[in-house]
Amino acid sequence: MAAAAIGTLMVLGSLTIASPARADGGQSADEGYVMVLQALSFLVNDPGPDGTAQALAMVGDALEAEGHDGVDVLMLEQAAASLRAGSTEEAQTLLQGSISEAVDSLEPAVGDETGTTVMLAPLPPRGALSVTDWVFLGLSVLAAAVGIVLAVLFRPTESLRELGHDISAARDRATVASTGKEA
Amino acid sequence: MPTELRTSTAVDASDSRTWGRRALDAIDERLGITALAYPVPEHANRFAWTLGGITAISFLLLIGSGIVLAQFYSPMPEDANQSVRAIETEVWAGSLFRGVHFWAAQAMYVGAVLHMIRIFLTGSYKRPREGNWLIGVAMLGLITFALFTGTVLKWDQEGFEALGHNIEIGNLLGGLGFWFSPEFAGRISILLRLYGAHVVIIPGIILVLLVLHLLLVKRHRMSPHPLLPAGTSSEQAAEGEPTQPFTRHIRRLVAFGIALAGILGVLAVLFPAPIGSTPVPGIEITKPPWMFWWPFTLENWFGLSAIVWGELVFFFLLAVLPFVDRGPERWWRRRPVAMGIALVVLAVLTVLTILMAITPAEVHL
Question: Does position A176 have pLDDT exceeding 90, yes or no?
Answer without folding.
Answer: no
